[in-house]
């Protein structure tokens, strides 16, 4: 997809950089920009036998905090629903899985930074009041 919108270009570049970063760590990328009726999952990967649902957030500056703050509870709940749909459609309900967040700050280059938060949140947290 080609777009002239600088935000979309930055987001796409951030996702590509995050994917390269995860591959270098040994992750096997299974899906990119997976679109469903519930929304979009940035990356689905496998890490040492664990299915990993990855949310990538690109930030041009450090003004909005780190990876932990980049994915609020509402977004977490949406990611959980997307993951449940993915697991059900592929009959993978017994597969261990987790949610990672990758925050790309600055331009994907030598000046940019990546923060990778493995197991960023637990699914059980969403059942609490």
Present the secondary structure layout:
Layout: H1 6-24, E1 28-36, E2 39-47, E3 50-59, H2 67-70, H3 73-89, E4 97-105, E5 113-117
Care to describe what's here?
With 129 residues, the chain is of the alpha+beta class. The protein has one domain (6-127): Trna Endonuclease, Chain: A, domain 1, CATH 3.40.1350. Helix content is 31%, strand content 33%. The protein contains three helices and five strands, in the order αβββααββ. A hairpin with a 7-residue loop joins β4 (97-105) and β5.
Quick description:
By secondary structure, the protein is of the alpha+beta class. 31% of the residues lie in helices and 33% in strands.
As residue ranges, the low-confidence spans are: 125-129
Distance from first to last alpha carbon = 40 Å
| Element order: H for helix, E for strand | HEEEHHEE
At the third CATH level, what is the topology name?
Answer: Trna Endonuclease, Chain: A, domain 1
Mean of residue pLDDT? 84
The CATH top-level class label: Alpha Beta
Outline the biggest β-sheet.
Answer: 5 strands, mixed
How many structurally independent domains?
A: 1
Helix content: 25-40%
């Amino acid at each position: 997809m080609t777009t002239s919108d600088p935000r979309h270009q930055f987001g796409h570049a951030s996702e590509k950089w995050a994917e390269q970063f995860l591959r270098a760590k040994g992750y096997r990328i299974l899906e990119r920009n997976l679109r469903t009726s519930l929304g979009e999952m940035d990356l689905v990967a496998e890490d040492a036998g664990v299915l990993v649902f990855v949310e990538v957030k690109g930030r041009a500056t450090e003004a909005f905090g780190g990876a932990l703050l980049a994915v609020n509870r509402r977004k977490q709940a949406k990611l959980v629903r997307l993951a449940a749909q993915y697991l059900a459609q592929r009959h993978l309900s017994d597969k261990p899985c987790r949610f990672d967040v990758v925050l790309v700050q600055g331009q994907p280059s030598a000046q940019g930074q990546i923060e990778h938060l493995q197991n960023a949140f637990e699914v059980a947290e969403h059942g609490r009041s």
